[in-house]
From TrEMBL:
Its EC number is 7.6.2.1. This is Phospholipid-transporting ATPase. The active site is at 428 (4-aspartylphosphate intermediate). Mg(2+) binds at residues 428, 430, 856, 860. Its main location: membrane. Residues 882-1132 form the P-type ATPase C-terminal domain. It is a multi-pass membrane protein. It comes from Ambrosia artemisiifolia (Common ragweed). It catalyses: ATP + H2O + phospholipidSide 1 = ADP + phosphate + phospholipidSide 2.
Length: 1190
């Protein structure tokens, strides 16, 4: 079957590397083949599998699940019983079959079975969902050669090593492939590797010349080749091998290797041979097994349970010592002090002659009895709450990305409360920070501001002041539910201004300047156009989101860039006569952006022969390069730039100049000479040449695109970037999202010293490693010295991948971490996937704080799994990161709501819920202990067996679950308005030992009050009108009733936000207790035992029962109510102050709210707030300097 006419390609010099014919000579690069680590032999196009099936029988199936059908039961049971409380209850369940148990075995085993089964079912459902996602990827289709030149569709999972596949445009590569040919005559193809190394620009790959002519399906009927190459490894950037084809051997390089999960772009199709499959592919080699993650609160909860075990064993020990002493004294001659225990008839338990043994048996009995201090339903209740919390996250409309139809998706529910404790965010790249998209919102041209778009900052400011927005002289009212993105018809373009759009710019006073402005946007970039031949629509592949936004804006406003060749840039523009005119500019030079220049320029020649230099860059370097006659609009433009910065926008200045032929010739000679140098000062000479030509510019105006991380910075969260991008790109977008800003001191760690360059020329690896390690160590120490010398100044640490490899060395990594933690921003460039994982582990283990990793590519899998929480971006590329993440969101901007709202709520709910669980069990356990002490430590429980078993499972757990799911201390709006509220979780103020012990003390006080009021009120007075006294069954049921009332009413006092469900659960738990008394008491006495008709015949008719319940319940709640009232009125916590705002109706008082809000904004060093403060401070000190001395 034919594939049609092949494309021709002119290679552009703007790409990251030159693409020429691969040599056919087998040189020294192949000398390693056949040695250790280079033993793989692949026979291509062996349709019967003969040749490699013996060696490589693995298919292309990839699994990211935590369990397999065989491992689920043992592994899930291990997950459950590694929890110390569950293991303890397993032991007590086994011991309940002995005579030592104070209750029946069934009543002990049934709750444990319910708890463990529920948890395992939840784990199974979550892992099944992961399996479904694996199934989606593994069952993608690709065309595979089946023989005789015929290709058929086959699932990815069925691919074998040596298969010939045909991948078409915009498809992902299903395995690691050897490129054989493509739809281009030069056998090149464009590859997008964002999923692998984080880079957004396209890579150019090229096959061997010997296989480039095999360009049709039918040509593969007789194709045979043998590839000898390296064994599977994790190195994404290296490949060593040879191919034997038609009796000749050819050297292979990374230029011919297409990696799994990268995407074919701007190329109709390619043919490739499968080299590595499944878990042998390089991207999977960089991933790790999904770990069993547990939250910090859950780990601390284990320590609280250890403490409860200590208390329980201490109580059992003291009681047993007392019991042994009293038992020893029971028989004094013929006199029996505790005759009712029958010590003379006892074998061991109450035998006075064997008191030490009886004491030991009592200890075991007491441990079983006091085990109710440990809440058996705590773990399963937390599991249920977390599942319900994830449902709320998944269904949050504010985190739904309509454009891609993608909601947030929590793939595991184990870590929801960790979302409220994030100290450091590690992002895979700057593109993720900018959501891989930016929007063109405003611009200033010829001193006039255009664009009526509103940023979130402007909306918040207007709302705080209670006034309409004033945008370019017009009122625009804000709307809480407005979302710019939801209304965008064109991605990246959010510009509204009737003076400019629809060609009306030609009527503006300075239309000539406006034309030059948009021409510059259409020409000054390195974007690659992709023309859809069917629809005629042009899309762009750009190195950065802001560059894409500028090209799209130019297109939407009538300047459509549609073609690029090696030497030309073509676009269609709307000229001053409103006619669409096609123009082609000769592209002479591209002066690329870097961190020192902070600008980018192109030199082009018009059709008329005029030479132009078009430039765009940061205001700090552009204004100083303006010519005297080019500053006409400078004052107004600076004013607009400051306004845009205040509105949370990133700005660029646009300028141009005309060049004479002599100027250009002189520059080009100098520039070309500098580029061709191979010396240490090459970059300096290039910068010197560009600086001479980029001067005397004429200002056109400024552009503006939005920010995205300020709220997270205000919340005190640190943001690190671990990117595969080159340093210049990372720094550029670092400025764009305000991770970096003007005035921030940069500490750059590179391996570019003359000593290292000289050592690299020698080729001695040991010498290079030694010198490099010393250089990195020296630079790190110098950076620490800068931090020490200027402790109040913000610093940014920027380090490349080569340096990072040495910085992570065991002897240096702690020093590196100290430097990094002291900096406001950290950017690690050219990081490999394993380096990302190692840095994440270093931050997590070195700081001891909670870390969150966020990424969107397969190269981020290790980082996502190493962090406490891994967040995958599902809105851009592939599924590998999402499949390995804990939570998936469509865009980075949703992280703000995920953390500041859901994270805060989940942390507070889980913390309060756990404290409440310990409280209610201590209330219950205290009454058990006091009753046993009252009964001379005889092992007699105060309650019926099923009272004991159902206390945690039915009567008190549902209100706690409602608290964990629905409670809100403040609304979502206030969570975002007062970001410092998030620090409650980071500092763990709600689950520190002081708060836990406070709740325990409250439980102890409540238990003591209930017990002694009930005992004193019911004994020895007559209980009813017939003169009967209250027996054990009456006293136990009365105490139990008081406990149920108190713990449920305590919940009502602790809840901040009531819902109907909470009312049902709180008061329903109490009603359920009375219904149980009726139902259980109606059963035969052999089943209900001490509860037989106790309520209907004894408790209900007795006024004393109801009076004691009311009095004891009220008295037990007074300590908590008094403490909380004093604290809330006189010593409110930060969330308490916000609650007062809501309660007193001051939420609409801008002065009061602003006063409280100021306490929520920390001194930040990143984000537009920090940038605005820094600029205002600079202006303040500048004004002081300008004031005349008094």
């Amino acid at each position: 079957m034919g594939t049609g006419r092949r494309k021709k390609l002119n290679i552009s010099n703007i790409y990251s590397f030159q693409c020429g014919r691969t040599t056919t000579r087998f040189d020294d690069d192949g000398s390693q083949i056949g040695g250790p680590g280079f033993s793989r032999v692949v026979y291509c196009n062996e349709s019967d599998g003969v040749g490699q099936s013996y060696y490589y029988d693995a298919d292309n199936y990839v699994r990211s699940t935590k369990y397999t059908p065989m491992s689920f039961l043992p592994k899930a049971l291990f997950e459950q019983f590694r929890r110390v409380a569950n293991f303890f209850f397993l032991v007590t369940a086994v011991m309940s079959f002995t005579d030592l148990a104070p209750y029946s075995a069934v009543s002990a085993i049934l709750p444990l079975v319910v708890v463990i089964t529920a948890s395992m079912v939840k784990e199974g459902i979550e892992d099944w969902q992961r399996k479904q996602q694996d199934h989606e990827v593994n069952n993608r289709k690709v065309k595979v050669h089946r023989g005789r030149g015929v290709f058929e569709s086959r699932e990815w999972k069925k691919l074998k090593v040596g298969d010939i596949v045909k991948v078409e445009k915009d498809e992902f590569f299903p395995a690691d492939l050897l490129l054989l040919s493509s739809s281009y005559e030069d056998a090149v193809c464009y590859v997008e590797t964002m999923n692998l190394d984080g880079e957004t620009n396209l890579k150019l790959k090229q096959s061997l010349e010997s296989t480039s002519t095999i360009n049709d399906d039918s040509n593969f009927s007789n194709f045979k080749a043998a590839v000898k190459c390296e064994d599977p490894n994790a190195s994404l950037y290296t490949f060593v091998g040879t191919m034997e084809f038609q009796g000749q051997q050819y050297a292979l390089s990374p230029q011919q290797l297409l990696l799994r999960d990268s995407k074919l772009r701007n190329t109709d199709y390619i043919y490739g041979a499968v080299i590595f499959t499944g878990h042998d592919t390089k991207v999977i080699q960089n991933s790790t097994e999904p770990p069993s993650k547990r939250s910090g609160i859950e780990r601390k909860m284990d320590r609280v349970i250890y403490f409860m075990f200590f208390v329980m064993f201490l109580m059992a020990f003291l009681g047993s010592v007392y019991f042994g002493i009293v038992t020893k004294q029971d028989l004094e001659g013929d006199r029996q002090k505790r005759w009712y225990l029958g010590p003379d008839r006892s074998d061991v338990y109450f035998d006075s002659n064997r008191a030490p043994v009886a004491s030991m048996y009592h200890f075991l009995t007491a441990v079983l009895l006091y085990s109710y201090l440990i809440p058996i339903s705590l773990y399963v209740s937390i599991e249920v709450v977390k599942v319900l919390q994830t449902i709320f996250i998944n269904n949050d409309i504010h985190m739904y990305y309509e454009e891609a139809d993608k909601p947030a998706h929590a793939r595991t529910s184990n870590l929801t409360e960790e979302l409220g404790q994030i100290d450091t965010i590690l992002s895979d790249k700057t593109g993720t920070l900018t959501c891989n998209s930016m929007e063109f919102i405003k611009c200033s041209i010829a001193g006039t501001a255009y664009g009526r778009g509103i940023t979130e900052v402007e909306r918040a400011m207007a709302k705080r002041m209670g006034s309409p927005l004033l945008v370019n002289g017009r009122d625009k009212y804000f709307d809480d539910h407005h979302d710019n993105d939801s209304n965008l018809s064109v991605k990246g373009y959010n510009f509204e201004d009737e003076r400019i759009t629809n060609g009306y710019w030609i009527h503006e006073p300075r239309s000539d300047v406006i034309q030059k402005f948009f021409r510059l946007l259409a020409i000054c970039h390195t974007a690659i156009p992709d023309l859809d031949e069917e629809t005629g629509k042009v899309t762009y592949e750009a190195e950065s989101p802001d560059e894409a936004a500028f090209v799209i804006a130019a297109r939407e406003l009538g300047f459509e860039f549609y073609k690029r060749t090696q030497t030309t840039v073509s676009f269609i523009e709307l000229d001053l006569s409103k006619k669409r005119v096609e123009r082609t500019y000769e592209l002479l030079n591209v002066l690329e952006f870097n961190s020192a220049r902070k600008r980018m320029s192109v030199i082009v020649r018009e059709d008329s022969g005029k030479l132009l230099l078009l430039s765009k860059g940061a205001d700090s370097v552009m204004f100083e390069r303006l010519a005297k006659n080019g500053r006409e609009f400078e004052a107004n433009t600076k004013k607009h730039v400051n306004q845009y910065a205040d509105a949370g926008l990133r700005t660029l200045i646009l300028a141009y100049r005309e060049l004479t032929e002599e100027e250009y010739k002189e520059f080009n000679e100098k520039f070309t000479k500098a580029k061709n140098l191979v010396s240490a000062d090459r970059d300096d000479l290039i910068d010197e040449a560009t600086a001479e030509i980029e001067k005397d510019l004429i200002l056109l105006g400024a552009t503006a695109v939005p920010e995205c991380i300020d709220k997270l910075a205000q919340a005190g969260i640190k943001i690190w970037v671990l990117t595969g991008d080159k340093m210049e790109t990372a720094i550029n977008i670092g400025f764009s999202c305000s991770l970096l800003r003007e005035g921030m001191k940069q500490i750059t760690i590179l391996l570019e010293s003359p000593e290292i360059i000289a050592a690299e020329k020698t080729g001695d690896e040991n010498v290079i490693a030694k010198i490099s390690k010393e250089s990195v160590k020296k630079q790190i120490l110098e950076g620490k010295a800068q931090l020490t010398a200027s402790p109040t100044d913000p610093f940014a640490l920027i380090i490349d991948g080569k340096s990072l490899a040495y910085a992570l060395h065991e002897s240096i990594k702690n020093t590196f971490l100290e430097l990094a933690v002291g900096c406001a921003s950290v950017i690690c460039c050219r990081s490999s996937p394993k380096q990302k994982a190692l840095v994440t582990r270093l931050v997590k283990d070195g700081t001891g704080k909670t870390t969150l990793a966020i990424g969107d590519g397969a190269n981020d899998v290790g980082m996502l799994q190493e962090a406490d929480i891994g967040v995958g971006i599902s809105g851009v590329e592939g599924m590998q990161a999402v499949m390995s993440s804990d939570i998936a969101i469509a865009q980075f901007r949703f992280l703000e709501r995920l953390l500041l709202v859901h994270g805060h709520w989940c942390y507070r709910r889980i913390s309060s819920m756990i404290c409440y669980f310990f409280y209610k069990n201590i209330v219950f356990g205290t009454t058990l202990f006091l009753y046993e002490a009252y009964a001379s430590f005889s092992g007699q429980p105060a309650y019926n067996d099923w009272y004991l078993s159902l206390y945690n499972v039915f009567f008190t757990s549902l209100p706690a679950i409602a608290l964990g799911v629905f409670d809100q201390d403040v609304s979502a709006r206030f969570c975002l308005k007062f970001p410092l509220l998030y620090q409650e979780g980071v500092q763990n103020t709600l689950f520190r030992w002081r708060r836990v012990f406070g709740w325990m003390l409250n439980g102890l006080a409540s238990g003591i009050i209930i017990f002694f009021i009930c005992i004193r009120a019911l004994d020895p007075e007559s209980y009813n009108k017939n003169g009967k006294t209250a027996g054990m069954e009456i006293v136990g049921a009365t105490i139990y009733t008081c406990v149920v009332w108190v713990v449920n009413c305590q919940m009502a006092l602790a809840v901040s936000y009531f819902t109907l469900i909470q009312h049902i659960f709180i008061w329903g738990g109490i009603i359920l207790w009375y219904l149980f008394l009726l139902g259980y008491g109606a059963m035969p006495a052999t089943i209900s035992t001490t509860a037989y008709k106790v309520f209907i015949e004894t408790l209900a008719p007795a006024p004393a029962y109801w009076f004691v319940t009311l009095f004891a319940g009220t008295a037990a709640l007074i300590p908590y109510y008094s403490y909380k009232s004093v604290q809330m009125r006189f010593f409110p916590a930060y969330h308490g102050m916000i609650q007062w705002i809501r309660y007193e109706g001051n939420s609409e008082d801008p002065d009061y709210v602003n006063m409280v809000r100021q306490r929520s904004i920390r001194t930040t060093t990143v984000g537009y707030t920090a940038r605005s403060i820094a600029r205002d401070n600079s202006l303040y000190y500048l004004n002081l300097e300008r004031q005349p001395p008094k």
